[in-house]
Structure to design on (115 residues):
């Protein structure tokens, strides 16, 4: 079994969930809980997949469930920084287009560097 980590940071106007490791059946319930908790804090959730090494249908399902929950509340879930096989899975399933960036707030350290 691979490792899985989730870090949630609240920012003005959104919550950023940074995931790392494997998002698969073994962590399905934990992933659903992390995303639901984030949506409980803000209707806008940015999910950073930059450190995710593996994403299976359980991970995709969690993102779609979160998407529907956010939409029901007038919010949005956006995925960013997917690379390699994870980006391919999102592209093939259509999730990349569905949850792709649309005016996504930058992390605070990047916003300061750009400004």
């Amino acid at each position: 079994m691979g490792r899985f980590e989730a870090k949630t940071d609240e920012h003005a106007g959104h919550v950023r969930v940074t995931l790392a490791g494997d998002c698969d059946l073994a962590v399905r319930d934990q992933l659903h809980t992390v995303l639901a908790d984030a949506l409980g804090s803000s209707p806008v959730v940015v999910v950073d997949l930059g450190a995710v090494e593996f994403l299976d249908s359980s991970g995709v399902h969690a993102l779609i469930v979160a998407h529907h929950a956010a939409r029901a509340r007038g919010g949005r879930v956006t995925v960013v920084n997917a690379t390699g096989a994870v980006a391919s899975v999102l592209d093939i399933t259509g999730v990349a287009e569905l949850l792709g960036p649309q005016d996504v707030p930058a992390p605070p350290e990047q916003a300061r560097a750009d400004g």
